[in-house]
Design brief:
Number of domains of chain B: 2
Strand content of chain B: 5-15%
Strand content of chain A: 15-25%
Helix content of chain A: 25-40%
Radius of gyration of chain B: 29 Å
Strand order of the largest sheet of chain B: 2-3-1-4
Order of helices and strands of chain A: EEEHEEHEHHHEHEHEE
Structural class of chain A: alpha/beta
Oligomer: heterodimer
Largest interface: A-B, 24 and 17 residues
Distance between the termini of chain A: 39 Å
Distance between the termini of chain B: 18 Å
Largest sheet of chain B: 4 strands, antiparallel
Number of helices of chain B: 11
Shape of chain A: globular
Strand order of the largest sheet of chain A: 6-7-8-3-9-10
Helix content of chain B: over 70%
């Protein structure tokens, strides 16, 4: 186990971005584990679909990666660091290496597009100069140049999701976690969002996307991890959504 | 730390919950004002104790027709008594002079008092002020030129128990008010955190430090605490200008009540403001730890 969770990045050339070893998560209120002995590895630069029905454990999977929750047993490692031994004050540092996108966008309604993106940098103390430079860059990348001063309420759903993606990506995270990012969008708009996520993936950012949308999964032919009642039932490179659909 | 960002968050927070903020500031101000008053009374009490207790514990007033021998006998007896730490003799003239000084603010009273109206006396300091009875027994009232033996300490004890009571009552009300203020601060902070949950959720996700996320709330409470403290300080200043320096001017000049100096007011103002800031900040911090996920 040269690449164990305690190995120091820098000493070993680190390819593995995410590693779960026998991860089980029990919530006190429920008798059935949300995740049941899940083990998997995700390399740097991979694009992974996390699929499964509602309640299959997709969101728990993502929450554990962000250390919003700790597993009941097993270990989760991100970028070579074991999260269960990570102290509380190190968690913000972990989260700076990850971007998050959600189904409901989670934009600040009273801030403009540019301010929403800048907010993510301001609160982690990035210098003003950097913010002024990178915000327009990332807005251009997501296709929102010229809309920097709009409020979220003036944008379409697809455009709002682009703002959210810009905010998640502006700090150049190692991993982008997307929880049903196309859940609220029509198929054409979704396609645009997927193109954008692919583009981000090509920059070397690992993308993990939880989704129900089998059209997208089937057309992209990327790695598929399927959870079923908390159990990892399928892990397939270049997979499709469901067998026998 | 981005000072502008934090300050604008604080300003928005205070404005958004204006009514709660005002309630929080007012209860804090009342509580701190009472606390400051309690401290002032406590300071006055200890100064008064110094003024009175040190001077006189027992007064032996002499009868009008006291003879020189009787006076001499009393003096010898006091000198010989192991209970007596020291004493002074005060003649009628001296007593009148002291009276005139004490009541210089009430000239009518002085005018209407003939110079010989006040008795001569021995002012006795006891080794142990509690043992007044022994002296009283040695000099029975109405005998051997003694008119009356009076335990000044007993009067002072009553006066001071009254003042102590006033101080304790003030501080008790201050504590109850402080409790109300703390609960209001806690509620306001919970409300503020709820209002700003979108911002704080995003801050958490993008990796803002805990400190960065919490500081605006803590500052919000601390600023409200500071404003409360400053209002209380204003109240103390008004108390000095309008009440102590006016209504109590007479007794203070007469030396019955010690004056309240400006440095006591300033010191107490600093203390209550500091307590206001610290209590509000700590209350906010604890609230965030207990009730709010940041």
């Amino acid at each position: 186990m040269a690449n164990g969770p305690d190995a120091q990045p820098g000493l070993v050339p680190w390819r593995l971005v995410i590693e779960l070893q026998h991860v089980t998560k029990l919530y006190p209120a429920s008798g059935r584990p949300a995740l049941d002995d899940v083990s998997t590895e995700i390399d740097k630069g991979e694009f992974v679909f996390l699929i499964g029905s509602s309640g299959s454990g997709k969101s728990t999977f993502l929450r554990l990666l962000l250390k919003e929750d700790d597993p009941t047993s097993g270990t989760v490692s991100v970028n070579g660091k074991a999260l269960n031994t990570m102290s509380k004050w190190q968690v913000p540092k972990l989260r700076r290496t990850m971007g998050c996108v959600f189904q409901d966008f989670r934009l600040l309604r009273n801030r403009t597009v540019a301010q929403n993106v800048a907010f993510a940098l301001e609160v982690i103390n990035k210098p003003h100069r950097t913010i002024k430079r990178v915000v327009p860059e990332v807005l251009e990348m997501v296709g929102l140049e010229g809309k920097a001063n709009r409020l979220p309420g003036e944008l379409s759903g697809g455009e709002q999701q682009r703002v959210a993606i810009a905010r998640a990506f502006v700090n150049r995270p190692l991993v982008l976690l997307a929880d049903e990012p196309t859940g609220n969008l029509d198929p054409e708009t979704s396609e645009g969002i997927m193109l954008l996520l692919e583009r981000i993936n090509r920059t070397g950012t690992t993308v993990i996307m939880a989704t129900h949308d089998y059209h997208i999964v089937d057309s992209m032919r990327r790695r598929v991890i399927e959870l079923n009642g908390g159990v990892l039932t399928r892990d397939q490179s270049r997979g499709v959504y469901g067998v026998g659909r | 730390m981005r000072v502008n960002f934090v300050l604008s968050e604080v300003a928005t927070g205070l404005r958004r919950n204006l009514t709660m903020t005002v309630a929080m500031i007012l209860t804090t101000a009342i509580s701190l004002g009472l606390m400051g008053t309690g401290l002032l009374i406590a300071g006055m009490i200890s100064e008064m104790k110094e003024i009175y207790y040190d001077k006189v514990q027992v007064s032996i007033f002499l009868a009008d027709g006291v003879t020189d021998e009787q006076r001499q006998a009393i003096q010898s007896e006091l000198e010989a008594s192991p209970e007596v730490a020291g004493f002074i003799y005060e003649s009628r003239e001296e007593a009148y002079e002291r009276f005139r000084q004490q009541f210089s603010q009430q000239p009518e009273l002085v005018e209407n008092t003939p110079p010989d109206a006040l008795p001569e006396s021995f002012r006795v300091e006891l080794v142990n002020p509690e043992r007044y009875e022994i002296i009283a027994a040695e000099f029975p009232n109405g005998e051997a030129g003694v008119d009356q033996v009076r335990d000044e300490g007993q009067f002072l004890d009553r006066l001071f128990s009254l003042l102590n009571g006033a101080r304790n009552a003030t501080i008790a009300v201050a504590v109850v008010q402080a409790l109300a203020a703390l609960l209001l601060i806690s509620n306001t902070i919970q409300l503020a955190a709820f209002n700003r949950r979108n911002e704080t959720n995003i801050m958490r996700l993008v990796g803002a430090s805990r400190w960065y996320t919490q500081l605006p709330f803590i500052l919000e409470a601390a600023i409200a605490g500071l404003i409360g403290g400053l209002l209380a300080a204003g109240g103390l200043i008004l108390t000095k200008v309008l009440f102590i320096d006016r209504t109590l001017a007479g007794p203070i000049k007469a030396g019955i009540i010690p004056p309240v100096e400006w440095d006591a007011i300033i010191w107490n103002s600093v203390v209550v403001s500091g307590v206001g800031v610290a209590l509000a900040g700590i209350a906010a911090y604890v609230t965030l730890r207990l009730y709010v996920r940041l």
